[in-house]
Specification:
The protein is an alpha/beta fold. The chain has 18 helices and twelve strands. The chain binds adenosine-5'-diphosphate (ADP) and magnesium ion. Magnesium ion (MG) binds next to helix 9.
C-alpha cells in the first residue's frame, strides 16, 4: 500500500484542509474583520501624527484644541483596536481548537474503518502515531503561525495600502529597500533554528549522561570506570556549551541586523523624500507619518520570515493528514441494499480466493484458495487447521470485514456485497480470539451495545447462558470491574463476557474464534456450556483450537494452507484417516499427557 502522497500544491492543500476542517471557516469573515480593525489601531497613530503636525502646527500658531482632539481620538481608537485584536485572537484560537478536534476524530474513525484486507493492525497503529504528530504540528502552527498570518498579514497589508495612498512612489522605495531585509532574516533564522535544535539535543545528551552516571554508580565503581565516564561527561558538556554559544552568536547577529536594515530602509525613504523637496506635494506631517508607517511595515517582517518556515511544515503535515483521509475505506456499502431473510440464515461460501494486500505487492500469496461450503441455517460448524491455514481470515470474510478477491460469500442467499453494513452488524456477530473489554464493570461492558437494557435483563442474559455460577465467583458479581482492557479477567473469562455480549445482540450467525491461550478446566466447561446455549437456533461457526469443540459440532471444516481439504462430521473424518484424524490423534495425545 503506497504512502499517502503529496500531490497537492500548498494552495490546494490549504483549500482542502479548510474543507476537511469546516470549523476554520465558521465566522472567519468576522474574525478577519476584527483583525483588520485591530491592525487599524496601529496604523491610526502615524495618521494622527501627520494630522496633528499638519493641522495643529500652522503658521497661525499651535492649535491646542486640535491637538487635544487628535489625542482623544487616538486614545479611543487604540482602545477599540486593542479590544478587536484580542477578540480576533480568541476567536481564531477557539475555532482552530474545534477544527483540530474534528480533524482528529475524523482521522481516527477513518483509520479505524480501513479495510483489514489492505491494512494490518500494525500499519493502522503507525498511521495513528504519524497522524497524531502531524496534528500536533498543526496545533503548534495555529498557536503561533496562524495568529501571525492573521495579525501581521492584515497589519502589513493595511500599512502598505496607507503608504501607497500617501505617496505611492515613496512607498515603492520603502518596499524595495525592505526586500533584502526579508531575505537576510529568513537565512539567519533558518540557521538559528538549526543551531538551537542542535543545542537542545546536546543538552538532552548531557542530562542522559549524568543520570546514567548516577544510576550506574555502583557498576562504575566496581569496574573502576570513573575516569572513562568523567572524560565522556566532560566532552558532552563541552559540546553542549559550544553549541549554545554558537546559537547565541547567531541570535546576537539577528537583532542588530534587523535594526541596521530598518535604519537603511527609513534612510532611503527620508533621503528620497527630502531630495524631491517640498514641491512634491508631501507635507511635513505626511513625511513624519510616512517614516512611522515604514517602521510599522518593517516590524512584522522578522516574525513573518520565521513563520514562513513553520507554515511550510504545517502545510506538509496537513498534506499527510489529508492523504490519510483519502485512503479508501473498504468494503463499500451497496448502492441498493437487499434485506436479509428473517430467522436463521444459511451461509454459502462459493469458490472463494483471498489475498491480503497489506505489504503493497500486488501478487501476494493467496491465503484462501477455492474454498466452497454450504452451511444450512442453524448448523453448528467447527473450522480447524494449523496456525496460518486461513481460519481467522475465513471468519473475517463471512463477517465481511473484507471482500474475497474472487468468489462470493452469501447469507440466506444474498451476496454480502448487497447487504447494508448496519444490517450485517446486527445479524452477524463475531467473538474474536481476544475480545476487547473496556475499563469498567462487566455490566457496562455488556450493555454498551444495547444501552437501554436494565440490570435485570443483563442478569437474565447471564442466566440464559447458564453462567450464574461463574458470576457468583466474582467479587462484585455483574458489577465487578474488569480493569484496563479487561486485564482483571482471564482470557477465557473475557470470552465469556463476549459471549454474553453477543447473546444480547441476538444474531442469526455467530462467529467464534476460540482463544488460543490455555483456558483453565472450569472456565472451559463454562465456555462450552455457554456456547451450546448460545448456538441454539443460530448458524454457528466456531474456529476451534480445542478439538473437543470440533468433536461436538455437527460438522467440521478442515483448512490446510488456504484450501478446504476435508468437510464432514467429526466421527466420519476421524475414521477417514486424513488430515483431521491425525490432528485429532495428536490433540488427544497432548491433552491426556498434560493432564
Ligand atoms: N491482516 C493481515 N495482513 C496480512 N497478512 C495476514 C493478516 N492476517 C493474517 N495474515 C496472514 O494470512 C495467513 C492466514 O492467517 P489466519 O487467517 O490468521 O490463519 P489462522 O487463523 O488459521 O491461524 C497467515 O499467513 C497470516 O500471516
Ligand atoms: Mg486465527
Amino acid at each position: 500500500m503506497s504512502e499517502p502522497t503529496s500531490r497537492w500544491t500548498a494552495v490546494e492543500t490549504i483549500g482542502r484542509g479548510v474543507r476537511a476542517a469546516p470549523a476554520l471557516r465558521t465566522g472567519f469573515g468576522l474574525t478577519l474583520g476584527l483583525a483588520i480593525l485591530g491592525a487599524g489601531g496601529r496604523v491610526v497613530i502615524p495618521i494622527l501624527v501627520q494630522q496633528t503636525i499638519d493641522r495643529g502646527f500652522t503658521d497661525a500658531g499651535v492649535k491646542v484644541d486640535t491637538i487635544a482632539l487628535m489625542a482623544g481620538i487616538a486614545l479611543i481608537l487604540v482602545l477599540l483596536a486593542t479590544w478587536a485584536q484580542r477578540t480576533a485572537v480568541l476567536r481564531l484560537g477557539r475555532r482552530s481548537e474545534e477544527a483540530l478536534y474534528g480533524l482528529r476524530v475524523r482521522l481516527f474513525e477513518h483509520i479505524h474503518r480501513l479495510s483489514i484486507a489492505d491494512h494490518s493492525e500494525e500499519r493502522k497503529g503507525a498511521l495513528v502515531a504519524r497522524v497524531t504528530s502531524d496534528v500536533e504540528t498543526l496545533a503548534q502552527f495555529f498557536q503561533w503561525g496562524g495568529l501571525a498570518w492573521l495579525l501581521d498579514g492584515t497589519l502589513m497589508l493595511l500599512v502598505a495600502a496607507v503608504m501607497l495612498s500617501y505617496d505611492w512612489a515613496l512607498a515603492v522605495v520603502a518596499f524595495i529597500a525592505a526586500a533584502p531585509l526579508a531575505l537576510v532574516l529568513q537565512r539567519v533564522q533558518r540557521h538559528l533554528v538549526r543551531a538551537y535544535d542542535l543545542a537542545r539535543s546536546r543538552n538532552a545528551n548531557v542530562m542522559t549522561q549524568i543520570s546514567e552516571v548516577v544510576a550506574g554508580a555502583e557498576t562504575i565503581r566496581a569496574y573502576e570506570a570513573g575516569p572513562h565516564f568523567v572524560r565522556t561527561a566532560k566532552r558532552a558538556s563541552k559540546e553542549r556549551s559550544d553549541s549554545f554559544i554558537k546559537a547565541g552568536t547567531i541570535g546576537a547577529f539577528l537583532f542588530p541586523s534587523g535594526e541596521v536594515f530598518s535604519v537603511f530602509t527609513v534612510s532611503a525613504v527620508v533621503g528620497v523624500g527630502v531630495l524631491r523637496g517640498p514641491g512634491s506635494g508631501l507635507s511635513a506631517g505626511a513625511m513624519v507619518g510616512f517614516v512611522f508607517l515604514t517602521y510599522r511595515f518593517l516590524e512584522p517582517i522578522a516574525e513573518f520570515t520565521e513563520v514562513l518556515e513553520q507554515t511550510q511544515t504545517a502545510v506538509a503535515g496537513m498534506r499527510r493528514v489529508l492523504g490519510v483521509l483519502e485512503i479508501p475505506i473498504g468494503p463499500p456499502e451497496p448502492e441498493t441494499p437487499i434485506s436479509l431473510p428473517a430467522g436463521p440464515l444459511t451461509v454459502t461460501i462459493d469458490r472463494v480466493d483471498f489475498s491480503y494486500r497489506t505489504r503493497g505487492d500486488e501478487d501476494e500469496a493467496p491465503v484462501l484458495i477455492g474454498v466452497s461450503a454450504h452451511i444450512p441455517a442453524g448448523q453448528q460448524v467447527a473450522v480447524v487447521g494449523e496456525t496460518g491455514s486461513g481460519k481467522t481470515t475465513l471468519g473475517r470474510l463471512i463477517a465481511r470485514l473484507a471482500d474475497p478477491s474472487a468468489g462470493t460469500v452469501s447469507l440466506g442467499g444474498v451476496s454480502l456485497t448487497r447487504v447494508a453494513n448496519a444490517e450485517l452488524r446486527r445479524r452477524v456477530t463475531v467473538v474474536p480470539q481476544e475480545p476487547f473489554l473496556f475499563e469498567g464493570s462487566i455490566a457496562a461492558n455488556l450493555s454498551f451495545a444495547r444501552p437501554k437494557l436494565s440490570r435485570a435483563e443483563l442478569e437474565g442474559a447471564v442466566d440464559a447462558l447458564d453462567l450464574r455460577d461463574w458470576l457468583e465467583t466474582l467479587p462484585d458479581g455483574i458489577e465487578t470491574e474488569v480493569g484496563q482492557r479487561g486485564a482483571q479477567l482471564s482470557a477465557g473469562e473475557r470470552q465469556l463476557v463476549a459471549l454474553i455480549r453477543a447473546s444480547l445482540v441476538d444474531p442469526a450467525v455467530l462467529l467464534l474464534d476460540e482463544a488460543t491461550s490455555s483456558v483453565d478446566a472450569l472456565t472451559e466447561v463454562r465456555l462450552t456450556r455457554a456456547l451450546e446455549r448460545l448456538a441454539r437456533g443460530r448458524t454457528t461457526i466456531a474456529i476451534a483450537h480445542r478439538l473437543s469443540t470440533a468433536a461436538r459440532a455437527d460438522r467440521v471444516l478442515v483448512l490446510d494452507r488456504g484450501r478446504l481439504v476435508e468437510d464432514g462430521p467429526h466421527r466420519v473424518l476421524v475414521d477417514a484417516g486424513g488430515v483431521y484424524s491425525r490432528m485429532y490423534a495428536s490433540w488427544v495425545a497432548a491433552t491426556t499427557s498434560t493432564d
